[in-house]
Amino acid sequence: MTNTIILIGFMGAGKTTVGQQLAKETKQQFLDLDDEFVKETGTSIKSFMADNGEKAFRTMETKVLEDRLQNSGVISTGGGIVESDINREIIAKSDATVIFLQADLATVISRLATDTERPLLRQLSMKQLMDRWALREPLYSSLADSTIQTNGKRPEKIVQEVIKLFSPDNALVSLRSEIDSLDHQIVHLISERLTVVKEIADVKKDTGLSVVQHGRMDQMRSELKKEFRDDENVSDRLIDEIVDLLTSTSINHENKMFG
Ligand code: S3P
User: Fold this and answer.
1) What lines the ligand 1 site, CB under 6 Å?
2) pLDDT exceeding 70 applies to what percent of the chain?
3) 181 Cα–ligand 1 center, Å
């Protein structure tokens, strides 16, 4: 492994949690630049920003970055570090390996729903947050040596993927990270779907409707086939297989509930 790993990515992408676990696993020192900021200034980011504004925060953030990069180990950064040209230059010039932990905006928002410490999250409107997202995404990508997808994954899994980046057969790690993340999301969605199925089963039970409604399933098949007509990845047969799987799982579930 290289001496220093810098984790970048939007707020809530998992940089601190993953960084801590990665450092532990690889027996390296861990530094969180937000924590280092607090040590350096003796005040929380929230109060610093409230008193001095974001611009002053960014200037101070650069100082902390420059100084702490003298250390080796795992360094997690604040989500906005890439907004400054100077910070990007400092990171690019260092000999650290830069890893972008990427998450969807929806994932980030749901992870941070109850956060009260991140001032920007409180200050920015949804539109402004989306603008920040759009501004930063290409900056993270261009600065990173590798990207790891974090949607739907547990920190331990993300740590293992980061470690794999340093193995000799690392060519597929980023792409596999993407596909694994999609698989996790698909299973989460199926679980969510089954929760709705349970609610439907309750209503059917109360209203005396039968479990299987053939008309509805056929309608869904034809809607999907029409929608994906021009998508060369998705054949009619694939749609049939997916709908068969989803409906048979739901019917089993409902039947169990009907007893
Ligand atoms: C910020 C992200 C925060 C922190 C500060 C500003 C940002 O770090 O540096 O509140 O601009 O996105 P995390 O990414 O660790 O939340």
Assistant:
1) 11, 15-16, 34, 45, 78-80, 118-120
2) 98
3) 24
Residue type for 21, please? Q
Q: How far is the CA of 33 from the centre of ligand 1 (A)?
A: 10
Q: Which amino acid is at 181?
A: S
Measured distance CA(175)–CA(210) in Å, rounded: 44
Nearest to residue 31, comparing CAs of 87, 80, 72, 83? 72
**Residue of minimum CA distance from atom 3 in ligand 1:** 78
- pTM comes to 0.79
Structure confidence by residue, pLDDT tens digits, 93-152:
999 999 999 999 988 888 888 888 887 888 888 899 999 999 999 999 999 999 999 988
Residue bearing tokens 């994932």: 107
Rg of the chain taking only CA atoms, in angstroms: 23
Q: Which of 34, 68, 115, 122 maximizes ligand 1 atoms within 8 Å of its Cβ, making it the mutation to test the pocket? A: 34
Instruction: Please report which confidence band the pLDDT of residue 2 belongs to, taking 50, 70 and 90 as the band edges.
Output: low
- The DSSP 8-state label assigned to residue 7 in this structure reads E
* DSSP conformational letter for 207: H
**Integer Cα distance of 257 and 259 in angstroms:** 5
Q: Which of 152, 243, 246, 245 is nearest to 196 (CA)?
A: 246
Q: At what angle do helices 15-25 and 155-164 cross, to 10 degrees?
A: 60
Going from the C-alpha of 120 to that of each of 62, 80, 98, 155, 170, the distances in angstroms are 18, 10, 24, 24, 36
Helices marked H in the chain? 15-25, 33-41, 45-68, 85-93, 105-111, 119-123, 126-143, 155-164, 173-207, 214-227, 236-258
